[in-house]
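Fill in residues.
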């Protein structure tokens, strides 16, 4: 049955340029929207810039302009980049609008009226020179675990430990350089515990309906282990954002009004009258609880909690409908590694567009994107080969090899009919490709493309077997030639219809050549017969590897010419710092690129197996777990590890074997002495995973 769907992508942060990591998500959502429309559904597609936060305020101040001027300039860059990548939003807005302010206030007042808001004093680090409270990422100091200098206030980029800013040794303000002081301030919280039962039910319902991946739901269960804590939703002046009604000097944290921006952008679209299938009254119809419409979000895996816990709670608490689906994707790597500025693989969208065709990357991403949270690797050599082989060699080549003969011998017109065998062949291919509709909807674009390319191989084999260039030399075989060319070009049209969500610009040129405008997938069921085509013009060219090299070099040069702003292009708002990259790992990676060491350097580390005898949260710390390890011949060890965010129920770790550094000097911390460091994988926060040990390993064994 046809559905009405509101689709959004995570909001790019208005403090930096869009890069290829962001493009993954926007392309993924755009392909889905195009495919759903071609399947017969009504889809409204909106996005916006996330325009609030401390880093916006400070960057504008540094550049000597207003925050409004800053976000306006970034908005223009973002919309141009997305447009040129073929991402066709119905409306692209900003969170700094009156529509968003009104909706944020509406939701907030409803939460207050329904008893879901509380206030309490909070101790934070305060910059005495700038007279401002400092988000975690605006504080630096010496890591309390490994003693590396100049580490951020929430996590160490060298050892990966997480901690409270007050645990830093010799902390200083990134803004002024001053030593911060502790200061108390009244903050406002949304009581997430009020929604715990509701959220558990919603998560299971969405998983059963296909609206949430199982990996997402399983990860979220950890948050419920110790009960949901209230969510701090306020920030103190100075701050660029919406002031909380009735609370002078108090502002909404960016993650309050950012998701509301989805609804505000949609409301603006309804009121603009630019879509004939939308009118102003449709807004309330879409957002009410129990609506028969769908709300589908596309996000990166670093902002799961905001979209699957905080956002649904806000909506339900305000009496509004909750999301139908939250589709989560992985990060982008390049040539098997995180995007790197030094290697030139941290590529801005515009830099890519200056050198390469947008549809090339869209197609490559389509061949990689599936319904899981797996990261996507842009293997530049595979990118070149796949585009050249698939798009040019297997798809466009069909038309380029056949179109000239149609014009030379048949006045540019396809045959009026196909013989039974040729028609059966077409019908079989068309029926086979109809499976792509469900694959697109399930976001398994890689499987859809594989099927399309299999049919492309079949089409090319047909052309090669019949060799129209040979048949054209024999005037007695004109009728047979006409049939071969007609079937070959209908194969081409069939492939174009099913590829069009992924490569819209190239598909548009292909349809212009065919003089055909199919708007639905079901147009592929019948071949194009007795139809005049236009003269063929090149639709796509092969990738010249020199252009890829030039793009990489340009990325290096642009980074040398334009130094990184301070603060960096991320929101740096504590718990949301990593989340703002939305589609990719933060440009300011928490783990530096590896440096070469000698075997002697490695040998200095005494890595051992430890068995967890006890594990508990450390009172007074939001980051630390206290481990008691059986270290074999080394006795028992107490280790304080900053992985609390990743393991909500630490008792489940008892009995596990872990790997730890046994010869690290004991460190006296605020919460006790830590006698080593437990190794884990990940980027920090809730993205940390203890290393597993094979069966048979015993406590105290050395790791070599």
């Amino acid at each position: 049955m046809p559905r009405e769907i509101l689709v959004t992508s995570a909001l790019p942060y208005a403090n930096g340029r869009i890069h290829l990591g962001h493009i993954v998500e926007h392309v993924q959502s755009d392909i889905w929207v195009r495919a759903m429309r071609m399947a017969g559904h009504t889809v409204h597609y909106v996005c916006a810039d996330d325009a609030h936060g401390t880093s916006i305020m400070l960057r504008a101040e540094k550049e000597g302009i207003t925050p409004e001027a800053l976000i306006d300039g970034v908005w223009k860059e973002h919309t141009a980049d997305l447009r040129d990548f073929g991402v066709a939003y119905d409306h692209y807005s900003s969170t700094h609008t009156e529509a968003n302010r009104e909706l944020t206030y509406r939701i907030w007042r409803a939460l207050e009226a329904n008893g879901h808001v509380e206030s309490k004093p909070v101790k934070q680090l305060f910059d005495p020179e700038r007279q401002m409270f400092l988000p975690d990422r605006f504080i630096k100091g010496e890591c309390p675990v490994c003693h590396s200098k100049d580490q951020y206030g929430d996590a160490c980029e060298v050892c990966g430990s997480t901690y409270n800013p007050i645990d830093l040794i010799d902390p200083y303000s990134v803004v002024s350089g001053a030593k911060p002081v502790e200061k108390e301030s009244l903050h406002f919280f949304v009581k997430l515990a009020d929604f715990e039962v509701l959220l558990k039910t919603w998560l299971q319902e969405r998983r059963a309906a296909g609206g949430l991946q199982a990996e997402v739901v399983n990860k979220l269960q950890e948050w419920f282990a110790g009960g949901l804590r209230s969510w701090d939703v306020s920030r103190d002046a100075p701050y660029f954002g919406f002031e909380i009604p009735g609370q002078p000097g108090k502002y909404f944290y960016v993650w309050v009004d950012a998701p509301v921006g989805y609804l505000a952008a949609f409301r603006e679209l309804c009121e603009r009258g630019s879509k004939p299938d939308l009118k102003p009254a449709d807004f309330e119809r879409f957002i009410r609880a129990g609506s028969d419409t769908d709300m589908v979000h596309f996000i990166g895996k670093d902002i799961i909690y905001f979209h699957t816990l905080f956002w649904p709670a806000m909506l339900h608490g305000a009496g509004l409908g909750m999301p139908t689906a939250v589709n989560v994707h992985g990060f982008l790597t390049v040539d098997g590694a995180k995007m790197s500025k030094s290697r030139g693989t941290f590529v801005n969208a515009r830099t890519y567009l200056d050198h390469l065709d947008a549809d090339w990357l869209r197609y490559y991403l389509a061949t990689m994107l599936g319904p899981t949270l797996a990261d996507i690797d842009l293997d530049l050599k595979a990118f070149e080969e796949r585009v050249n082989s698939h798009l040019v060699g297997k798809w466009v080549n069909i038309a380029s090899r056949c179109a000239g003969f149609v014009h030379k011998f048949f006045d540019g017109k396809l045959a009026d009919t196909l013989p039974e065998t040729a028609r059966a062949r077409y019908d079989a291919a068309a029926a086979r490709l109809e499976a792509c509709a469900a694959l697109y909807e399930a976001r398994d674009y890689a499987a859809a493309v594989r099927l399309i390319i299999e049919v492309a191989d079949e089409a090319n084999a047909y052309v090669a077997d019949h060799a129209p260039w040979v048949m054209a030399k024999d005037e007695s075989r004109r009728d047979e030639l006409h049939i071969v060319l007609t079937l070959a070009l209908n194969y081409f049209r069939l492939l174009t219809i099913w590829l069009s969500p992924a490569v819209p610009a190239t598909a548009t040129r292909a349809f212009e050549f065919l003089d055909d405008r199919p708007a639905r997938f079901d147009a592929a069921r019948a071949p194009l017969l007795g139809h005049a085509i236009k003269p063929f013009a090149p639709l796509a060219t092969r990738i010249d590897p020199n252009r890829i090299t030039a793009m990489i070099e340009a990325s290096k040069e642009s980074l040398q010419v334009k130094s990184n702003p301070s603060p960096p292009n991320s929101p740096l708002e504590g718990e949301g710092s990593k989340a703002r990259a939305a589609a990719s790992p933060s440009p300011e990676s928490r783990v530096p690129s590896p440096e070469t060491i000698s075997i002697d350097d490695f040998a200095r580390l005494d890595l051992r197996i430890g068995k967890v005898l006890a594990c508990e949260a450390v009172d007074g710390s939001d980051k630390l777990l206290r481990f008691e390890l059986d270290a074999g011949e080394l006795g028992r060890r107490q280790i304080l590890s900053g992985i609390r965010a990743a393991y909500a129920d630490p008792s489940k770790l008892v009995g596990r074997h872990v790997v730890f550094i046994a010869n690290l000097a004991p460190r006296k911390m605020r919460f006790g002495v830590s006698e080593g460091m437990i190794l884990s994988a990940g980027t920090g926060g809730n993205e940390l995973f203890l290393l597993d040990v094979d069966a048979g390993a015993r406590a105290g064994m050395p790791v070599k």
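The domain at 4-114+192-212+243-330 is CATH 3.40.50.620 (Rossmann fold).
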